[in-house]
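Quick question, first post here. What does this chain look like in 3D?
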Amino acid sequence: MFWHNLKFEILTTLRAKDLIIWMMIFPLILGAFFKIAFGSIYENSTLFETVPTAVVENTKNEVFHSVIDEMEKGDNPLLKVTYMNEADAMKALENDEVKGIIYVGDKLTLKIKNSDIEQTILKKFAERYMAQETIIRDTMENDPTNLQAVTKILSQDMPVKEDRPMTDGNTDPFVAYMYNLIAMVAMFGTVTGLHIAVSNQANLSELGARRNCSPTPKFITVIAGLIGSYLAHGVCIVICVTFQTLVLGVDFGTRLPFVYLGGFLGGVMGVSVGFFVGSISTWSEGLKIGIVMSVSMAMCFLSGLMFGDMKAILELHAPIVNDLNPAAIVADSLYYLNVDADLTRFFGKILMMVGIAMAFAVGGLFLTRRRRYASL
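> Answer (accepted):
Ran it through. Tokens below.
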């Protein structure tokens, strides 16, 4: 009877219209909108760009010219220098055509308009040049033939800007919306879990009444229903992740099988939570559905599905919310999987999912195991 009930539960769940709409079609459409809205923002933006700089020469400085020549080499140089007179340089600075003006005289001076990151780069460059110019001049006085070698050393000490990623994973901040989309599908499993509990309660459904008259032990029926829902919901997770990967081209890093694992266990957690809520017999089915849907959407909102910075705000002011929010746990597991070199934090979140799923599943079984009805 167990296998018969398992097969029945899987087929019934996959044929449900609300499951097809909310757990298969809706996430695919929402994921496509996310891709259209955010897909090219990260690729078209950079953290640093070559800093346009004006140079006003009051005196000729061969050392400075040699250093600038080295700094402008490469495909992505640190500075783009234009030599101007002071009037043109001031006009360019006011029009934001350059980020600063370097005055070359007896002493190097810098004029900037504000304190953005480009101006900070110019400040650091000027400070390091002034700190090492004396060494270069002393070397030139003793052996002028070493100018090129000394300039090369200086240019190595002040390297041309280059991007050095802190992780081999996808650092696109907008991919977090895709993590939360998978978490949303996982949390929608609460509706599936709720139907398991309702379909085994004689006072809430006709199917529940028939099942309570059946000779099959209720424990076997409920366990088969839970496992069937876990597997059916896992199909929804697989479709969601596969669509994002193959159709939308979302980069989940090099550990795609673990993405499926994290999403599947998130779905198991969602089904178990819904099963527990549905097992509370004193509430009507409509009230239970309203509760699980409202709570699921609230958890997704707090995890950053609608407002990407929400989880960061909570981490600053109320980190315990992120620690206890099932949707945030799922999204965090996928984030750690992508950016971490090892799997320590990922498996930490996996253990949390398993623990929450087991706690709510056992709680739901406890609420339903001894329930009896005076008449059916």
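DSSP finds 16 helices and four strands in the chain.
The longest helix spans residues 218-247.
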